[in-house]
From TrEMBL:
SUPFAM superfamilies found in the cross-reference section: 6-phosphogluconate dehydrogenase C-terminal domain-like (SSF48179), NAD(P)-binding Rossmann-fold domains (SSF51735)
Keyword 4Fe-4S in record: no
Top EC category: oxidoreductase
Keyword annotations: Amino-acid biosynthesis, Cytoplasm, NADP, Oxidoreductase, Proline biosynthesis
Function (record text): Catalyzes the reduction of 1-pyrroline-5-carboxylate (PCA) to L-proline.
Subcellular location: Cytoplasm
Lineage: Bacteria, Bacillati, Actinomycetota, Actinomycetes, Micrococcales
Domain Pyrroline-5-carboxylate reductase dimerisation: 170-274
Molecular function, one GO term: pyrroline-5-carboxylate reductase activity
Segments forming domain Pyrroline-5-carboxylate reductase catalytic N-terminal: 8-107
Family: Belongs to the pyrroline-5-carboxylate reductase family.
Protein name (database record): Pyrroline-5-carboxylate reductase
Amino acid sequence: MVDALPSVAFLGAGSMGGAILRGLVASAIPVDGGITATNRTSARASELEGLPGVRSIALEQQPDGNDVAAGARIVVVGVKPAMVPDLLDEIAPHLREDAIVVSIAAGVTLATFAAHLPAGTSVLRSMPNTPATVGRAVTGLAAAADVTDEERALVRRLFETVGSVIEVAEEQIDPLSTISGSGPAYVFLLIEEFTKAAIGKGFAEPEARLMAEQTFIGATALLEASGEDPAELRRRVTSPKGTTERAIAVLQDADLDGLFSRATDAALARARELAAGA
């Protein structure tokens, strides 16, 4: 386990970058050299002011802020994907020789980073999901071939401040995004439909939402606390010849497993289209 991190810069500390930054601050892990964050507007930069150990820069007030921040050891690139090449060209002359550049920009490949950065720059590509905002993310992490174990460990520790980390080959980043990246939306959709089913059975909307939301929250808390396989927990709830068994049979007859397979396949196809510029 890494006990401390070197200086970290977040270039584009919006929703996701800001969540990771806050997770790092909340973790109380020492950051030698501190944390720098850049955002385009003063309004967004002001949201990070006052966080301990953080220097927040508004680019509209300090146009060279990205260049200054690029002097950090770990540089997290969190701008919109279309803005990444220009940002890399901007910061390339200002990077340290031992810089580790980490992307949280969806769909931007390691090859794109390599094409715009000095030869030999260590680059990793990440795919965190939105529960990072509450410290419960799943982050996929793919490293370029020349990234060292020490560099990989530093970046892994950074993302562990907001949840769990899975290290994968780059070709698995897009498939991972269809599960953990898009996954929160699938869960929210299921809760929506569960709520509608409760309303259809005569419950008022507040009670329906409470039942649906807390059932999902409670079930996942039980899953985490028990350490059991979800199939085993399902079997324990499903009494033979009982009501739950009848409901599960309806879901299985509807080809639920095939439905999730087709949905994630569709998401993967779109991810590949976006990567190709379609």
